[in-house]
Amino acid sequence: MEIFSKLESEVRSYSRGWPVVFDRAQGSMLYDENGKGYLDFFAGAGALNYGHNNPALKQALIDYIARDGVTHALDMFTVAKRDFLETLQEKILGPRELDYKVVFPGPGGANAVEAALKLARKVTGKESVINFTNAFHGMTLGALSVTGNSMKRGGAGVPLVHATPMPYDKYFDGAYPDFLYFERLLEDSGSGLNEPAAVIVEALQGEGGINAARLEWLKGLSDLCERHNILLILDDVQMGCGRTGPFFSFEDAGIKPDIVCLSKSIGGYGLPLALTLIKPELDVWEPGEHNGTFRGINPAFVTATEALRVYWSDDKLEQSTRAKGERIGSVFDEIVQAHPEANLVAKGRGLARGIEFASGELAGSVCAEAFDRGLLMETSGPDGEVMKLLPALTINDAELEQGLEIIGESVRAVLTK
């Protein structure tokens, strides 16, 4: 462990809560260098929706590397990229009647968000963007400007400008009609609100505290944007690729955003890949106007393509995710009811679930207890007050029940101290 503290920056975070050296991983299990197994309810912060070293994806990757398939090609045409685009159209976009062109903005989610913000401003000629309370969109300057967390924003070191926060769904606990404040500012020439180029939103805020927007709220936001000629950017970096059930987290709301940001599990295997999906009429880039060295890592195209073929040729994974999510929800409701004095709140949708505690200290203590029992979870929310679950969508029933039992034990251990 000494080499980590000696050479690695103090900025490291996850390793502080899980102070072991991991060596192997398979499915929903991580193993440390001594062979001890840990049930993973974190899944690479949502980058491993299909589990660790998924056998089907691994074989496709091994076969590609073994035949000397192209690894790095900037944005040149490759067989791997063609296969991916054809499969994305066949399995995802076509069946959902979504007409998007694909931008490969760079390897991570923040790259997808930066491209979306940049393009929205180029298309509209406007600078301002509307974001939401407790939003998280990435750690680069543009993405931070539309992020809510004060600690993360403070790390920028410069003013974060051209973004205005609005209340996310249920921010005022239903005390006011949806979008009362937002729409009033838009319609009042004396409000001082700069006319926005775009609105950026998560259908379910993961880092913000497992805040799931109501479907009618998302539909209302889409309608508002259409009425006021504002582009709608849907950040599906963490909640896309089936995390809430359907492939896109916004599908159940029946909306079609102008721009969609994808990363994390779009690569299938945990390899870096990001997409910014844009309606064709927004494709006004000049060649090379937005570029980067790692805009399409071909091994990630290979595993992404295989994941779409294996898991999105039918609705089995979607239905399984919904059912497992309901199972977690029912257990969390039981935990809440068993501890009325603690004022717990069960939250989430699909396989993005959480329990909100009175403080970050309590939620962190529950995660620490779970780690001691062999389960990996993290916290989220502005003060880390939400115990957050993002298990692999492929987790089996026995593993799910084992994890839920550990969570129940961990909550009891903390709340009865």
Helices and strands in order, then pairings?
Layout: H1 2-7, H2 14-17, E1 22-26, E2 29-32, E3 37-40, H3 43-46, H4 55-66, H5 79-93, E4 101-103, H6 109-124, E5 128-132, H7 141-145, H8 150-154, E6 163-166, H9 180-187, E7 196-201, E8 204-205, E9 211-212, H10 215-227, E10 231-235, E11 259-262, E12 275-278, H11 298-311, H12 316-338, E13 345-349, E14 352-356, H13 360-372, E15 375-376, E16 378-380, E17 386-389, H14 397-415
Parallel strand pairs: 3-15, 5-6, 5-7, 7-10, 10-11
Antiparallel strand pairs: 1-2, 2-3, 4-12, 8-9, 11-12, 13-14, 14-17, 16-17
Pfam families: Aminotran_3
Pathway: Amine and polyamine biosynthesis; ectoine biosynthesis; L-ectoine from L-aspartate 4-semialdehyde: step 1/3
Cofactor: pyridoxal 5'-phosphate
Instruction: Give the DSSP E fraction (strand runs of 2 or more residues).
Output: 15-25%
CATH H level, superfamily name of the largest domain? Type I PLP-dependent aspartate aminotransferase-like (Major domain)
Q: Report the radius of gyration as a whole number of Å.
A: 21 Å
Gap from first CA to last CA: 31 Å
Would you identify the regions where 5 or more consecutive residues have pLDDT less than 50? Answer: none
GO molecular function: diaminobutyrate-2-oxoglutarate transaminase activity; diaminobutyrate-pyruvate transaminase activity; pyridoxal phosphate binding
EC number: 2.6.1.76
Family: Belongs to the class-III pyridoxal-phosphate-dependent aminotransferase family.
Organism: Amycolatopsis albispora
